[in-house]
Amino acid sequence: MKRISLIVLPFVLYISGLLAYYFDKINGYLFIILIIVGLGISISGFFLYRNEKKLKAAFLGIFYILSLLTIFESRLIDYEKYTYFLVSYNEPFEIVEDSGVNVLAVDVFEAPYITDLGYLIHTIESSTNKKVLDAEVVTNEIRYRSKNVELLSYVRPAEKHFETMKENVIAYLPENSSAINQFLEREDIEGDSAGLAAVLSALIEKGEVNNNVPVAVTGAIDSKGNVKEIGSIKAKTLIAEQSGFSHILLPVENEEEAKKVKNDEQLNINIIAVASIENAVANVKKLNERETGK
């Protein structure tokens, strides 16, 4: 029984430590310490049963496995420094002039070490002259997922969301547009949430859609024109309201969150949730019929 306990205990420490870490019960330092304790147990077992060939081999195998896990998980230590993601205001802009389609973008700041949220917000607003609209606590789940994405990028290139958006926009649009092409070549934008706005702007530029109603737009797309969920909905909804837009087009998957923001913040903006580009075009036409009679 003692032998079995010594063999199982290192893995119990790792699994229980991983679960405790993932659900924010312990920090990354303690998680790594638990793995190292498991390493110590495997080394002790190796020497304790060095005269028993099978047990010696078992403890040696455990030692190698835990050594690899220690290397794999130790990258978490660097992520301990991140405490909040702060999302601040960015001025909406048109890709195609006078299209009425306004892209909603945000600035995201990764705050290291500082846990005083009030101080962080004051510091960011003072240094950038931009209002912080949302703050997300960096949980261990976020840290663990980010660590895995980073390690995976060493094996295969990490997905570049703006490049993915570029490919999907080009795949959906049958003809080139100088304004859209120029936008897709920008290097100061990250993410894929401008995909819907880019396609709508191109359709308006080509005369396939008429729009005389200024509208805020956010949403990623796939190559078939389906509108996909995006992040920073609270901040983008607030930006749309503060910028004076009466309507915001966003993905169906983000509708519930946007409505909660509207209720919590007592906003007046009209939320229009769309599932596809065709759905978005139909809603733009309805807006114009209702508000301009055209």
Q: Count every beta strand, where a strand is a DSSP E run of 2 or more residues.
A: 10
- Determine and state the CATH class of the largest domain: Alpha Beta
The helix content is: 40-55%
Report the structural category: alpha/beta
Write the CATH fold name of the largest domain: Ribosomal Protein S5, domain 2
Figure out the total of helices. Answer: 12
Our count of domains comes out at 2
Side by side, the strands of the main sheet go 2-3-6-9-10
Give a verbal description of the structure.
This protein has 294 residues and is an alpha/beta fold. It has 2 domains: 2-74, no CATH class; 82-291, Ribosomal Protein S5, domain 2 (2-Layer Sandwich), CATH 3.30.230. Helix content is 54%, strand content 14%. Strands 2-3-6-9-10 form a 5-stranded mixed β-sheet, with helices on both faces. A hairpin with a 6-residue loop joins strand 2 (93-94) and strand 3 (101-103). Helix 1 packs antiparallel against helix 2, helix 2 runs antiparallel to helix 3 (53-73) and helix 7 runs parallel beside helix 9. It is elongated and about 90 Å long.
Features:
five-stranded mixed β-sheet; alpha/beta; 12 helices; Ribosomal Protein S5, domain 2; 294 residues; 10 strands; 54% helix; 2 domains; three-stranded antiparallel β-sheet
Summarize this structure briefly.
The protein has 294 residues and is α/β, with parallel strands linked by helices. The protein has twelve helices and ten strands.
